[in-house]
Write a structure and sequence with these properties.
Blueprint lengths: L1 E3 L2 E3 L10 H20 L26 H16 L3 H30 L1 H9 L13
Antiparallel strand pairs: 1-2
Length: 137
């Protein structure tokens, strides 16, 4: 343990660089999702230019919200890399907020926009964690 500015900090040395794995993986996941939104969805992740077509390819075949999963991986990677309890708590806040946003705003909006296509998709593909066996898409 080290004392840094009055705080006791566990010195884990080079082990903290393991946080680069989820950080880089999360960034790649997010970039892949942006590409799918632009190429397949004919739009962007931005609310002012959403996709005009429901995106169910790429990582969206495994979970309905891979872009958020990518963000979570980046945050968890940062928490590990900087060995920061604050970033870890912030991650929990972001994850909780994103879940509420998805459940109470995004999913109802997609249901009204894409109708039965989104209903079928939401029944076949889990919201956050991929299933061990195929999704049915």
């Amino acid at each position: 343990m080290a004392n840094r500015d009055g705080w006791l900090v566990l010195d884990i040395g080079a082990l903290r660089y393991a946080g680069l794995i989820p950080l880089i993986l999360g960034a790649l996941v997010s970039l892949w999702c942006v590409k799918d939104f632009v190429v397949r969805g004919k739009g962007t992740p931005a609310p002012f230019d959403p996709p005009s077509q429901l995106v169910v390819c790429g990582l969206y075949r495994y979970v309905r919200n891979p872009m958020y999963v990518g963000l979570f991986l980046v945050l968890i990677g940062e928490a590990a890399l900087y060995f920061s309890v604050f970033v870890l708590l912030y991650s929990v806040l972001v994850i909780s907020s994103a879940h509420a946003f998805v459940v109470f705003y995004e999913e109802p909006t997609l249901r009204s926009r894409f109708g039965d296509s989104y209903e079928q998709y939401s029944r076949a593909v889990p919201r956050w964690l991929p299933r061990a066996k195929g999704n049915g898409l």
